[in-house]
Amino acid sequence: MKKNLLMLSCFLFSGSALFAQNSYQWKTASSAGYTYKYVTNDPTQSRFYTLKNGLTVILSENAKEPSIEYRMAVRAGSNTDPRTSTGLAHYLEHLLFKGTDRFGTMDYAKEKPYLDKIEALYEKYHATTDPVKRKEIYAEIDKTSGEASNYSIANEYDKMMKSIGGQSTNAHTWYEETIYNEDFPSNNTDKFLALQAERFRNPVFRIFHTELEAVYEEKNRGLDNDAAKVGEKMNALLFPTHNYGQQTTIGTIEHLKNPSLVEIRKFYNKYYVPNNMAIVLSGDFKADEMIKKVDADFSYMQPKPFAPYSPAPEKPLTKIQVADIYGPSAESVRIGYRGYAETTRQSLLLDLMSSILANGKAGLMDINLNKKQMVLSSAAGYQQMKDYGIFILTAQPKQGQTLEEAKQLLMDQITLLKKGDFDESLIKATVANTKLALLEAFDKNDFRVETVANEFILNRGTKWDKDLNSNDEMARVTKKEVVDFANQFFKDDYVVILKHKGEDKSIIKVEKPAITAVKTNANETSAFTKNLLGIPSKPIEAKFLDYAKDLNFGKAGIADVVTVQNKNNSIFNLSYRFEMGAWNNKLAPYAARYLTYLSTDKYTAEEISKQFYNIACTYTFTVTNDVTTINISGLQENFDQAVNLVEHVFANCKANEHALEELKSSTLKLRENNKLNKGAILNGLTSYAQFGPQNPSNFVLSNDEVKQMTSAQLLDIIHHLKEYKHTINYYGPETLDAFSKDITKVHVLPAAFTEAAPAQHFNYMANTDNQVYFANYDMVQSEIRWVRNNGAYDPALGAKIDLFNNYFGGGMGSVVFQTIRESKALAYSTFAVFVSPDKKDKDYTLIAYVGSQADKMTDAVGAMNELLNVLPESEKNFVSSRSNAMNSIETSRITKNDIILHYYADKRLGLDHEARMDEYNGLKPLTFTDIKTFHDERVANKPYNYCIVASDKKVKTEDLQKFGKLNTLTLEQIFGY
Question: Strand pairing partners for 323?
Answer without folding.
Answer: 497
